[in-house]
Amino acid sequence: GWNVGAWKSLAPTSRLKKGITQHAAWTCMASVHSDKTSIKTENLLNHCKMLNSYETTEFIPFSIENEQLGWLRKEFATKLHSLQLETKQKVFTFEWPQCSEDGSSFFSGNVGLHAQLLSSHRQLHERSAAVNDMMKILFDRGEMRGWRGELQQVSSGFNKSPSLLLERGCVPYFGVAAYGVHVNVLVKDDQGTSVWIAKRALSKATYPGKLDQ
Questions:
Q1: Which segments of the chain have a pLDDT < 70?
Q2: May I ask the CATH architecture of the domain 56-174?
Q3: What is this structure's pTM?
Q4: pLDDT per residue over 3-25, tens digit each?
């Protein structure tokens, strides 16, 4: 995981103090460390862009009824395919990336839901149960982590009807859009304006004890 430290200063030549940026005049810096790399930047926006960059060639689209809703890592798609062969369940369909015969085009592949889960008589909850039951096998085997027992709507937009109700712990693995609500508190005093930053509970499945926005 990533550890982020933030500092503030009144000017570039001032001594940096650990804390929270209080005013637009403050210089904001970040030091980010992971198991493999260390990054220092004076621009948090560039840092956010770096964290949100990825190579689409490393992923396979996840679609329901010809509408792309997410991205799966190729390794995870392969794991799903192997599990489906093992359990003999009909939950997903797999189309693997390939080039055209003349090499002029490339098909990025697709992971979708099996036709029997898309038929008109199948209800949303029944379709979702089939997907989540298979995911639970991987969680029980320790191949996935963070099972919450909470369903997340999967749709093409915030106000769109859900195409699937996915276990929240599976959301990062399917690369689908997730939404949350945060309460931001601003405090004004003689020294200026400060913002509260919450700290995640130690019992959280992801990033326990880390600062949260």
A1: 1-42, 120-122
A2: 2-Layer Sandwich (3.30)
A3: 0.69
A4: 444 444 433 433 333 343 333 33
